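Lecture 7 notes. Example A: sequence first, then its structure tokens.
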Amino acid sequence: MGSRPTIADLAARAGVSVATVDRVLNGRQRVREETARRVYQAASEIGYYATALIRHRLAADLPQARLGFLLQRQDQSFYQAFAGELVKAAAETAGWRVQADLRFVAAQTPQEVCAALEALGAANQAVALTSLDHHSVTKVVENLKSNGKPVYALLSDFAQGVRENYVGTNNMKVGRTAAWLVAHTARRPGKVAVFVGSHRWHGHELRETGFRSYFREYAPQFEVLDTLINLETHQVTYEATLNLVHRHAGIAGLYIAGGGMEGALQALRELPPDRLPSVVVNELTPDSRAALQDRLVTAAISTPLPQLCRTLVDHMLATIRNGPAETPGQIFLPFGLSVPESI
């Protein structure tokens, strides 16, 4: 068994003097945060006995912030990954001690979202959430804003003109990209379909609009069918996909613009390979990754979650420190694109 690391070992690993490490440990004199963090990182790496004390010293003098996050459907892998990245971004914030208050809603009703948003707003200094666009949600956002609690829209916009910022991808471009992919990979021109969760999701509406506009402009030889509502549920999407391919033999393309793709994938696995349409799905998850590998899916368009969460937390803290922006804005992040050969 090796000997326990000493303060000299820690100083050498961190690239600082023993006196600097002593100041970090005992808090007798101020040490630059960057230096203190380097000492903490080194202590973690070598297993120094006072690592917990250094972490405490590091956080003691930092401003504190409580940030609330409200996501959908805790059982879905995408939102589990989203939650993990939010917690990570909060924990790794430099210059602040951030406490992340993370909650989920099980249903997608305005009533449940409003109740959860009010509770989060009461307990936190700023709030960010995924939500449908509804007048009752806008009213809660207005009330929080009047009480100095900024609200951020994630993935799908809502309460425009009232919320502080939208953070996510440009959903119109996402929809047009999905259409380009279908038009260029379909076996032949024909009918194409698009699923959205509901017309209350502003992001889904924009993706649908972009999808249809591309075909009108550049691929009029395809026919875009009436939009299908799947409520982002597995069973509804499964049954609707099977019904779709039976009613429209030889359908050329399918775009799942929101959740529920797992049901479509189940239905596609029941079809013979020569009947598979070109399929584009939203987000890269274990299910869509497997479908890409099995060549059931042409492409997955995904949200850059680590970048989104880092950008979001930084903007929320800047608003807490400096006050709200004069004009609510939009922060568009580049979306990811995965195809079978990139997995």
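Example B, a different protein, same format:
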Amino acid sequence: MNSYHLDHLQYLETEAIHVMREVAAEFERPALLFSGGKDSICMLRLAEKAFRPADIPMPFLNIETGHEFPELIEFRDRRAKELGAKLIVRTVDDAIARGLATASASETSRNRLQIPVLLGAIEEFRFDCCIGGARRDEEKARAKERFFSFRDGFGQWDPKNQRPEIWNLYNARLSPGENMRVFPLSNWTEMDVWEYIRREKLSVPSIYFSHERECFRRGGQWLPIPPPHSENGHPDPYAGARPKPNEKRANLIVRVRTIADMISTGMIESRADSVDDIVAEIAAARVTERGTRADDKSSEAAMEDRKKAGYF
């Protein structure tokens, strides 16, 4: 009888480390997508376990919308510095200024505008693989992803044209211009992520814990009130994301479950101020994690449409 037995988290960790090592072995210029959110925080620990004592053999890449929470940016920069990693940041604001991305008048979220920025960064640095922290439990489109998610020469994803992954064997073959997105956390759940953070004693941005914040009510959820617009002659970048006169405002004790930017992130009322409290809260939750994301509420196909065009 085999006395060695992996528990649930150990199995997921081993699987993810195997996937990361496959990336390092199969690709010439991979990058790790790191936003500072809880999923990418777990990715950093897995990368450490996969490659230490050597340096993590890939740079970190982050695509900023320009509407990020300051707490998230501070955490991202600090962790990259602590790990001695190269952090590459490309922004939607720069892409708009250069004419590479254009926002429509009715568009509030900048998630769609991240697509040309991401594809531009892949082309600029000739990345043949980007490792992301997406999980299949998040929503319907991501449930269709393989570990190795093939993207064509235009950076586009076709969910009906993906490669089989039998016996954990991954086909990493690419023609010039093609790209692979790899998701080592595919089989993880939100609960797994927080239990791993607890087990590994990982630091996370403060906005995951309860804090006081001024919010307004829209679309059945609380959204954070953006920072004031400075009168500098430029259009308000948060136009459309500010409370209207008839929308309720309140100072609340809230936290985030999943972080997009300040325009898209729904806040949940919560007193959870420790990882143990968050684990207990998730166990009792009846709303999905991405049920707090305003950018996913526009239509059921919103995420899949973005992913087909080249989104994360």
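Note on Example B: The radius of gyration is 20 Å. The chain has two domains: 8-188+301-309, 192-296.
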